[in-house]
Write a structure and sequence with these properties.
This protein has nine helices and 15 strands. With about 325 residues, it is α/β, with parallel strands linked by helices. It binds NADPH dihydro-nicotinamide-adenine-dinucleotide phosphate.
Length: about 325
């Protein structure tokens, strides 16, 4: 056993509704030595993501629940400090799934190289990482967005939504509309990211605000929110409209079942296509996405926006903040 110790974040109580700081504990413990084929990574950044809220419930899903009293995990990027894997020398930066901790022991085979040396390390968790691929695959594969489409995206100032809107513009959408939860975020969408229209969903009914922003209706809806947003999008959809069901964050803290959209039968007459998806199914698109997004970042046509919370002790606060709109772009925690 080495003398090295490291802090990690444990889930100590299953949240009811919005998570509270007391649902988490930061625990210091000795760090194991890496075995054969493993590396010890000093995590530089870790990701907090909405899907982690689902893992805090003791229910079966596409990823298993977090165990109580143990370190949580999730996306992270860091530097190899000790290597027992010939392909990953000390000093290599890698992306892996053992976040929520300062030091991680991971099999070399479970790491990915960083996307590009030309972007900040944290971009591997955001615009060039899982959220970026989610945006790309959801928009282009699952919603089959094509030139001339009118595109609406909810959660538009967040990690996935901000990239969806930018890619839609780059791929020739005729109009891109976003919704977000503050006046500052609305201004960010129109003035910084170049959305054609945006609204604050807290200002009034989403169906009314969407009808005003998109008087001709919409062809594509990228759903990060569910609930009233999905219902409004079904209402606004034009014939043969396509809806990519990516997330439903308005429901993640619900303590009772939430009804589905009351107007789903409109999908029949309008011949709508609604498709749920999980980003891991689109691993085959990763290289194509990295090539295209890397070029857009390099020529300035795609932005890397993030909100950085400093210190692993503040990771629970970053996660709670994510669920309440504290982030613009990708929420990451800087560990060291
Ligand atoms: P974001 O960066 O968008 O952060 C979450 C945002 O959600 C907050 O900033 C907040 O912004 C918004 N929000 C919180 N509560 C509500 C609410 N009640 N109604 C509307 N908006 C709300 O997160 P991500 O980009 O990482 O994820 C976006 C969505 O994509 C999530 O639903 C997530 O689960 C999903 N996802 C799905 C994947 C898949 O494979 N299917 C992969 C990755 C993400 P605001 O201030 O605007 O309210």
């Amino acid at each position: 056993m080495s003398e090295r110790t490291g802090r990690s974040v444990h889930l100590v109580a299953r949240p009811v509704g919005m998570p509270k700081p007391t649902d988490f504990a930061v625990v210091e413990a000795p760090v194991a030595e890496p075995g054969s084929g493993e590396v010890l990574v000093a995590n530089r950044f870790m990701s907090v993501d909405p899907y982690m809220r689902g893992r805090m419930n003791d229910v079966k899903s596409y990823v298993p629940p977090f165990a109580l009293g143990e370190p949580m995990n999730g996306g992270a990027v860091g530097e190899v400090m000790v290597s027992n894997a010939p392909d990953l020398p000390v000093g290599t930066n890698v992306v892996h799934g053992e976040g929520w901790r300062e030091f991680a022991v991971v099999p070399a085979a479970a790491t990915q190289p960083v996307a590009s040396a030309d972007v900040p390390l944290s971009a591997n968790l955001g615009v060039l990482g899982m959220p970026g691929l989610t945006a790309y695959a959801g928009l282009l594969r699952h919603a089959s967005m094509k030139e001339g489409d009118i595109v609406f995206v909810s959660g538009a100032a967040g990690a996935v939504g901000s990239v969806v809107g930018q890619i839609a513009k780059l791929k020739g959408a005729s109009q891109v509309i976003g919704s977000a939860g503050s006046a500052e975020k609305v201004a960010f969408l129109t003035d910084v990211l170049g959305f054609d229209a945006a609204f604050n969903y807290k200002d009034g009914p989403v169906n009314q605000q969407l009808a005003t922003a998109a008087p001709k209706g919409i062809d594509v809806y990228f759903d990060n929110v569910g609930g009233d947003h999905l219902e409004a999008a079904i209402h606004a959809a034009r014939p043969h409209g396509r809806i990519a069901l990516c997330g439903a964050i308005s429901m993640y803290n619900a303590t009772a079942p939430v009804p589905g959209p009351s107007n789903l039968t409109l999908a029949i007459g309008k011949r709508l296509h609604l498709e749920g998806f999980i980003v891991s199914d689109s691993a085959d698109l990763r290289q194509q996405f990295l090539d295209e997004a890397g070029a857009w970042l390099a020529d300035g046509s795609l932005r890397n926006d993030e909100t950085v919370v400093e210190g692993i002790d503040n990771a629970p606060e970053a996660f709670i903040g994510l669920l309440s709109g504290a982030n613009t772009g990708k929420m990451v925690v800087k560990i060291s």
